[in-house]
Amino acid sequence: MSEKYEELRSQLLFQPKHGYDRLSEADRAAMETYCKNYMAFMDAAKMEREAVRETVARAEAAGFVELTADTVLTPGARVYHNNRGKSVLFAVIGEEPLDNGAHICAAHIDSPRLDLKPNPLTEDAGMAYLKTHYYGGIKKYQWTTVPLALHGVVYKKNGETVSVTVGEDDADPVFCVTDLLVHLAGDQMKKTLAEGVSGEQLRVLVGSTPLPGDEGSDRIKLAVMKLLHDKYGMIEEDFLSAELTMVPAVKAREYGFDRSLIGAYGHDDRVCAYAAFEPILNLGTPKYTAVCVLADKEEIGSMGISGMQSQCFEKFMGDLCKLQGVDLADCFAKSFCLSTDVTNAFDPLYAETCDSSNSARVNYGVGVCKYTGSRGKGGSSDAAAEVVGYVRTLFDRNDVFWQTCELGKVDQGGGGTVAQYMANRNIETIDAGVPVLSMHAPLELVSKLDCYMTMKGMKVFYEAE
């Protein structure tokens, strides 16, 4: 009788399997190579501008050309559009005309950080600081006493634009936001975590030494400004037309005795952006046109000229359709999009925040989210059963390890992705991405297996017939 029910149990009940219990040796070797390359990308692309620069350079080396009105879109043609250096779109033209739709992977390349204010440099108590306005959802206390690097561009008064990077080279100095010593923190520690460090306290310490012999005002500030002038030709007024930010000065590293995890700043969402971009580089001629969208501004609502709500995507797809004599609305109606964004990985230290049977777990593969949003699915596109079924069948058929998930308990909170903006365009859309531990912290953790399976999932999606 017991054996009978065990057979019935195996037939009827869903029993997720750990990825390493079914990972082939070939996939394991490919996973290690892929993750090594991904880590190099993460070190080179901590900002959206840097991610665009890196992907465009690799795409051009792989035969992609800038899309123009004169481009001939024969099957297999490889084109891209660089949107002002802050977002980028790639396409490989398929055998089917675009009125039969496209297969789209849409990710974002921005991450939470500390942006400098327009007039940031100040001096106080013999120390120079840069004032910041944090970007995206962060726990402010996590950003104190973390080594920081300065990244960005400055449009100078003379019309020259210079790139700035300080803190990534081993010989560079780094910066930080200081914190209150525990001996004097009695009042601070009575506050909630949200109140312990305020946004205005996220000032980055950048110097403390005056110029030799200077006895005037703002001596420390002037000394810092001279260093910036000597290296970049900057004057203080140039901050007004600069785009500078502080990010963690950490390299991507393997984590754990078994090296099964990758720790880095900005996995959200460059881990999925890389997974969407890498397979399109070596893609042959697909049946349906394959499109990779690397957007900006997702962490602040996908607004602005480089966000997913802008008209840039319509412009790119509209230009492709125009060259084929296809109506854009017809293309969108037949298209399918994987919103390739991260999801939270179940953390047993905070188990009370999640429904364990509906949470993504480390090493179980790419997380497929039917809906995201928060408190009643707010801000979610909520994919149809047929959409989930298509992805389920495609991944199972191609040995892509995947798992279903949602972002926390029903009333706990949640989060959104670009999925709703793609669905609003009449494109069938579902979220699929890498589960992340410590999401939005200065250091995030992901599983190598989940990274690789997400890339493999994007690859078979581009190639799908």
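[next item in queue]
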Amino acid sequence: MTHFKMKDKTALVCGAGGFIGGHLVKRLKAEGFWVRGVDLKFNEHAETEADDFAIGDLREQSFVRAVIDRPFDEVYQLAADMGGAGYIFTGENDADIMHNSATINLNVLDACHKRNIKRVFYSSSACMYPEHNQLDPDNPNCAEDSAYPANPDSEYGWEKLFSERLYLAYNRNHGMQCRVARYHNIFGPEGTWDGGKEKAPAAMCRKVAMAPDGGQIEVWGDGKQTRSFLYVDECIEGTLRLLRSDFEGPVNIGSEEMVTINELAELVIALSGKDLGINNIPGPLGVRGRNSDNRLIREKLGWAPEQPLADGMKTTYNWISGEIDRKHNLRKAS
């Protein structure tokens, strides 16, 4: 393993090859940390800035012990088997999602405890909120204390809920200082935008960027289902503030700017400058309505996300459009 200077603060980012993990590594490096990243693969869209990057499977205990081979000042556990609605809500990946993510969390938490690492951040998801509180697209209830009685709409949500309880149990029983956040639809550049695991903002940007002017894009469902979407930089800010605070959570990290999926599509179309129609078709949907409730994060951290959705979507659309052009030019050149 790569060595670091003893005066450096050290951080471990599990899932550093992913979208949020890659951005988190950049932020920690900017703050002067020595950073080890861990993932099954390198980030496909940007070179890692980690000082040390270990490729391996966090489901394997021996690998986890090898990368958690010393105390770290901060550990961020973002690794999970996940994807967008087309991956989570079909039911075809339920066993993998539950087994893989739970195994990773059990392994990482046990290894951190045995290294006497105190500060561990865990990224849960708004998918753990009860389905019955998200049936009205105009008035979803995602306050943190609405989590019980539990009734997530997917096995992905059930695993997140179990793992939340696991981290907080280690706080109680082993004197750890784990922090739990419930992420709400994080988006931005340098993330997955095709292949089936992409989230709605990236999928919408891809569809619009590839559509011929005067054509149509397809949107799953009637388009009246609601969501909020948080730009990745604000997600990272909230994550760092929570881990370094005295509040264990769980707390929402998300935007309160709720839009329908058709409104999201219309926003991207406007950003593109194209004349496009929307064709609503059947598809996997998830709950009817979801929005971040930021009262608790304001109270406990004195902070909440504020960036308008349009600003982040403009940056994301420009990046995805550029990636599509780059791929097209590479194909032409070959």
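[queue empty]
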